[in-house]
Amino acid sequence: MSGMFTDRDEDRDGAAPAAGAEVEPTQEGTAPPRAPGRRRSRTVLVAAAFVVVTAVAAVGALGLGGDGGEGPAAPPRAGSTVAVTRATLVERTKVDGTLGYGAEIPLPAKASGTVTWLPEAGTVAERGDTLLRVDDRPVVLLYGTLPMYRELGTTAGTAAPDTTGNPTPPAPGGAGGKGGTDGGTDGGTDGGTDTASGGTTGTGGGTGTGGGTGTGGGGNTDAPPRSTPPQPLRGMDVLQFESNLAALGYTGFTVDERFTSGTERAVKRWQKSLGLPETGRVGLGDVVYASGRIRLGQPSVRLGAAAGENVLGYTGTTRKVVVDASAQEASWAVRGAGVAVGLPDGTAVRGQVASVGRQVTAPEGDGGTSGAAPTVPVTVTITDQRSLGRLESGPVSVEYVGRKRENVLAVPVAALVALAEGGHGLETEDGRFVTARTGLFADGMVEVSGPALRAGLKVRIPQ
């Protein structure tokens, strides 16, 4: 029995069993046990092989140095390839904007009295339309840039100037009388005698009696005053008004700077059509001038309130976009520059910078503590108003062109790989890596340059 245990112990230690020793038969269906030492050595060999393979792969991927811009070749990897191309890259930037009709302007109505009728907000008014009524008199829209600053009409007649030299008639029975004195002086050369009531005697022609009535060239008699006919009013405001009157179909006068009787007759016909007294004169508050068609805003007063220049506001009828652009990055906002306006439904329409504000505004309620940049208002007009559909107001985006690079080498941004030593590179079709300096990024492409890069070179997009 002891020998059998010894033989098993020696066999367990890896030694061959002694001759003639009895060997315990192996049970059916059971694998023979493996030596522990052999299992450990086999595990070590597998781990060492994995480290070697990993190190080789790392060297192939990261050994990109080289002053010539190329590194050692690595085993080719699966993935799509693209060619380096020459292209023009354009940097586009989007900013937020607001679609609308612009800021409202107070209507310069000069009528005084009580407001008796107001239009509905959003009403579009043209030349000749009634904007509001004050004391039940219409205030009419006309086109022009010169504001109404005086009443228009023919001027009143004036008295003829007094050329007699006697602005004041002589007092009857005065001491000597004015006429007696004049008679004695003026007629003296004719040798007459002037005797004035009151005891004054003079030499010369004529005899003055009573209050100075001279005969023989002595006294003067005042002539009755003469009047002149009404004179036409002149001015550029007359020309502006007559142009509107003619455009409304009232003629019979010459459109010029003179408000003549012909203009007056045309005004009376116009007043009759408006239900106004036919005076032929245009009052200061009867009309309001604007540069063209206007869109009326929300009234600021109720019916029955006193009229004034802040009764009603208005805007133009053209929809536009206002952008509060960063004052530090507003170099794109040049009058006439083209932009793309993105609408809420995802469509884009063409726009053009119309004006750039000159007043810089700090963010509302900021106080300079948040670090937000000041802004300037940029107005963008849209020529094709029909492209906006029925949209009248709301948030939109404005896309403008920033930097632009023409005829440069470019690849998709996805083709760039980060290099171990820093910077970026590209993997060629045969597995080599070349350095690439990046420039402008735009539309998913990137500008690249380097000594090993050329148009047509095939590079791999990493998976």
Automatic annotation (TrEMBL):
Basic and acidic residues bias: start-end ranges: 1-14
Segments passing through the bilayer: 44-65
Keywords of this entry: Membrane, Transmembrane, Transmembrane helix
Pfam families for the chain: PG_binding_1
Biased composition (Gly residues): 173-191, 199-220
Domain Peptidoglycan binding-like: 235-283
Superkingdom of origin organism: Bacteria
Transmembrane is among the record's keywords: yes
Region span, Disordered: 1-40, 155-234
Residue ranges, compositional bias (Low complexity): 155-166
Phosphoprotein as UniProt keyword: no
Protein's name in the database: Peptidoglycan-binding protein
Organism the protein comes from: Streptomyces tanashiensis
